[in-house]
Design a protein that fits this description.
mainly alpha, 5 helices
Length: 100
């Protein structure tokens, strides 16, 4: 997966990483996080600026932060409400099963 340069730089800025020695590892972690968030929440465009895409990008960055710090097992519990909210926002219109 090709990681946008802006996303890599956003993560490095957030983590105060000023060198490029870890870029390939960070790109790998970011790609894993994109796939994981898409699997949990639904499809989004990591490079778009719509509200749902920005929220997804934030979750990708947070999940990557947890993965980078070897604390990934805590991400789901700590971000459950954000994951659920994004999932509901990404459900295509007319694709819900309404029950009475």
């Amino acid at each position: 997966m090709n990681i946008p340069y802006d996303l890599l730089e956003a993560f490095k800025n957030r983590m105060h990483i000023t060198h490029s020695g870890e870029d390939s590892n960070l790109e790998r972690l970011l790609s894993f996080s994109i796939v994981a968030i898409k699997n949990s929440c639904g499809e989004f465009d990591i490079e778009d600026s719509k509200d749902t895409d920005l929220r997804a990008q934030e979750l990708v960055l947070e999940r990557t932060r947890y993965a980078y710090n070897d604390a990934l097992e805590y991400f789901g519990d700590n971000f459950l409400s954000e994951i659920t909210s994004l999932s509901l926002s990404l459900i295509p219109e007319g694709d819900t099963n309404e029950t009475l």
